[in-house]
């Protein structure tokens, strides 16, 4: 299986250069140059981390979610995959075997700002990757894999909504 990479589009600064100019004016109000340098030394790395691209990488072994740091989730820990709607934003939600939930940072469809016409196709591709790795009958395709009786089994039908 070829790896699928979904990156969340970067937001355009709707305020232009005003926040940069305002921040610079505030820093100049600090009396000492050492304090100004300390503020800049802390603020710039934080802005770089916040602006880092959020992405989702889907492989045959699992899914990697990257927001500030990467987290790999193997397919056998995924219990259900669904599309969630929160505040006018559609995104793909994972429910893990331990009961926790994770929202994928990409693909995301924002109805008013950036409508992704291929969102349903991306969701279907993620579902297909999950079904290929955890579907019935795949124990014959990989002789080193545990039999179905020894693997965790999904308690929900794939694609059903998470409640």
How would you concisely characterize the structure shown here?
The protein has helices at 18-28, 33-51, 119-134; strands at residues 4-7, 55-58, 62-66, 70-74, 78-86, 89-96, 101-110. The chain is α+β, with helices and mostly antiparallel strands and 163 residues long. The longest helix has 19 residues, at 33-51.
**Any idea what the CATH architecture of the largest domain is?**
Roll
Helicity, in percent? 25-40%
* Number of separate helices: 3
Taken together, the total number of domains comes to 2
- How far apart are the termini? 31 Å
Largest sheet: 4 strands, antiparallel
Low-confidence stretches: 137-157
Protein name: PH domain-containing protein
Molecular structure report:
Residues 154-163 have a biased composition (Basic residues). It comes from Catenulispora yoronensis. With 163 residues, the protein is α+β, with helices and mostly antiparallel strands. The chain folds into 2 domains: 18-51; 55-150, PH-domain like (Roll). Helices cover 28% and strands 28% of the residues. It has helices spanning 18-28, 33-51, 119-134, and strands spanning 4-7, 55-58, 62-66, 70-74, 78-86, 89-96, 101-110. The strands form 2 sheets. A 4-stranded antiparallel sheet has the order 1-2-3-4, with helices on one face. A 3-stranded antiparallel sheet has the order 5-6-7, covered by helices on one side. A hairpin with a 3-residue loop joins β2 (55-58) and β3. The longest helix is centred in the N-terminal third of the chain and has 19 residues, at 33-51. It starts with a strand and ends in a 29-residue tail after the last helix.
